[in-house]
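Narrative summary of target 7.
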Amino acid sequence: MQLPDHLVTPAPFPALLAAAEVTTMRLSPFVLNAGFYKPALLARDIAAVDLLTDHRLEVGLGAGYVREEFEAAELEFPSPRSRVDHLTHMTTYLREHVPTVPIMIAGSGDRALTLAATRADIVGISGSRTNSTAADPLADLVAFINDKAVDRFTGLELNLMFTAMPHDSSGVPKVLRTSGFGQALSQEEILASPTTLAGSPQDMADTLRHYSEEYGITYFSVPQLHAEAFSTVIAELR
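Modeled conformation, tokenized:
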């Protein structure tokens, strides 16, 4: 189970503790905006939540990207370089102080992906690198991670979150937008992305198998708004 970290959503750690009482699944903030936190304070919270959830916690981290959220939190909105620098510092600190908790780093820029490839346990990918012009953006993305990870790549888990999929028998993907998530892509760009599923439940299940076999992506996330529709895909995978 994963919960986002935005000002318009519930605070992730209290909500994850509540969820831990009614599920045996792994639990994760997906993903924490590293710019909102100081390393020592976050490490303390992570250690406590990991203990209280019987060590089912994994921590998703991102550099933060929504200017309006930083402003609403009365925080300076740093440059992209500064945000990734802070994410790097945060990752280093957490590795030292909560070493047993798996870390996911999500991003699409080359610096964030390099950090994920070299320091994370799980790489959260968005379907393509920033400004990629490759004919197969997903292959380009995975090849970049492989190159940066070197001998770590076989131990990495690759995560992909789906942003659109059919909700009926038409097979036409439905794009659901949620306020506050800083979604900058057009509907056309979303539909053309590897993060969109289309067709019948069997078609979508085949797409997941293809992503797993061709690109090594084995960890898929689906927003709650798509959960009921995705249940038909799960049935095809069993």
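The longest helix spans residues 80-97.
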